[in-house]
Amino acid sequence: MAKTVKRKDYFELMLKWKMFGECFVAIKDEIMGYCIIYANDCIGKVAYITMIGVRPEYQGKHIGYKLLTRICEYSIVKGMDAVELEVLIANFKALEFYKSFGFKVVGRKKILKS
């Protein structure tokens, strides 16, 4: 059974991450999606998306696209030259979404289990 995530839970998570990065939220009567990004790499000038998510009932309605557009604009304002993120190779839906937005696969990491 899927766990119901309450609005309060989202806000607590976002407040925790807000101390380190910036949080963007899509809201229309309820939270539809969110994105947390770090845009503070003054040397490498690379912003990093640490979390992004759109509630299942809002997927396919361009919420993720709007969030990514906004955070890329924000990254430019903050002086960043690029935006990075990581996604599991098996997450085909996310890979296709990011590629459709213009992201490219630039490397792969092997995850070692202990």
Automatic annotation (TrEMBL):
<keyword id="KW-0012">Acyltransferase</keyword>
<keyword id="KW-0808">Transferase</keyword>
<dbReference type="InterPro" id="IPR016181">
    <property type="entry name" value="Acyl_CoA_acyltransferase"/>
</dbReference>
<dbReference type="GO" id="GO:0016747">
    <property type="term" value="F:acyltransferase activity, transferring groups other than amino-acyl groups"/>
</dbReference>
<protein>
    <submittedName>
        <fullName>Protein containing GCN5-related N-acetyltransferase domain protein</fullName>
    </submittedName>
</protein>
<dbReference type="Pfam" id="PF00583">
    <property type="entry name" value="Acetyltransf_1"/>
</dbReference>
<dbReference type="InterPro" id="IPR000182">
    <property type="entry name" value="GNAT_dom"/>
</dbReference>
<feature type="domain" description="N-acetyltransferase">
    <location>
        <begin position="1"/>
        <end position="114"/>
    </location>
</feature>
<dbReference type="InterPro" id="IPR051556">
    <property type="entry name" value="N-term/lysine_N-AcTrnsfr"/>
</dbReference>
